[in-house]
């Protein structure tokens, strides 16, 4: 295990899985300036960290994953339109080729919803709640543009227009969440999911992630062409020969990522 952090955001690696934890539970893990800087630093570290194959993003405590922006700070700064680098948005303002998982341990509101939305997978505690609350405080949510790709359009419309919370089971029902578990099992379940991914061929995992997002940005016929381009170097890799060889020899594959 290795780890470090900025005080309000911790970065730790456990068996090839990086844990990025917002550690400001007394403020419901709200996105203060220090938290945002810590998230940027942690995300960049994960991208460059060869010892970490998967990132799990979570919050400290039992009440909040992240309750969104620090409204007191925003009021003091008279924040209007947040700058493009206000918060790391995986796949939008920072490329994160490796898989990411949100382990949602409580409320994920506004900016917290954003953070969970931008992760590739979501595991939620039974008491977790999700909401895009901006309409209730006169703020904006342009970052929610992908929501109607993740969930049915009418569900996205309800979430955005009402600002009302969606509980964890409903979130799983509509496809926003992959798994719902008792709070005491959240960390273990997220680690297990991340470990299963980390055990797969890294080039294939990276290509699979890119392929999954093609339908969000390309017409179907273009998506096929782009997918062929993405997977060509995977087929030509040493790992593509290692997998069948390991199966034939009845042993665990040894991935090299080349």
From TrEMBL:
SUPFAM superfamilies: ClpP/crotonase. It holds the Pfam family ECH_1. Keywords: Lyase. GO terms for molecular function: enoyl-CoA hydratase activity. The keyword Lyase applies. One of its GO terms (biological process) is fatty acid beta-oxidation. CDD domains: crotonase-like. The keyword Lyase applies. It catalyses: a 4-saturated-(3S)-3-hydroxyacyl-CoA = a (3E)-enoyl-CoA + H2O; a (3S)-3-hydroxyacyl-CoA = a (2E)-enoyl-CoA + H2O. Belongs to the enoyl-CoA hydratase/isomerase family. This is Enoyl-CoA hydratase/carnithine racemase. It comes from Pseudonocardia ammonioxydans.
């Amino acid at each position: 295990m290795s780890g470090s952090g900025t005080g309000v955001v911790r970065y730790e690696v456990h068996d090839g899985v990086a844990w990025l934890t917002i550690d400001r539970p007394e403020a419901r893990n709200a996105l203060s300036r220090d938290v945002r800087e810590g998230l940027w630093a942690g995300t960049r570290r994960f991208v460059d960290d060869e010892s970490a194959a998967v990132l799990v993003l979570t919050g400290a405590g039992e009440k909040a994953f992240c309750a969104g922006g620090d409204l007191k700070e925003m009021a003091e700064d008279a924040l209007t339109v947040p700058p493009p680098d206000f918060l790391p948005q995986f796949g939008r303002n920072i490329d994160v080729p490796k898989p990411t998982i949100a382990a949602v341990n409580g409320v994920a509101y506004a900016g917290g919803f954003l953070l969970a939305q931008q992760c590739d997978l979501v595991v939620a505690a039974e008491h977790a709640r999700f909401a895009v609350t901006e309409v209730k405080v006169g703020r904006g949510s342009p970052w929610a543009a992908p929501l109607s790709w993740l969930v049915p359009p009418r569900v996205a419309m309800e979430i955005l227009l009402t600002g009302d919370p969606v509980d964890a089971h409903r979130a799983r029902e509509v496809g926003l969440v992959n798994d719902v578990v008792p709070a005491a099992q959240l960390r273990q379940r997220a680690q297990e999911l991340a470990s299963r991914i980390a055990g797969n061929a890294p080039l294939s995992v990276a290509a699979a992630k890119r392929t999954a997002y093609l339908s969000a940005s390309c017409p179907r016929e273009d998506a096929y062409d782009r997918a062929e381009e993405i997977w060509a170097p995977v087929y030509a890799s040493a790992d593509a020969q290692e997998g069948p060889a390991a199966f034939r020899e009845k042993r665990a594959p040894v991935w090299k990522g080349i």
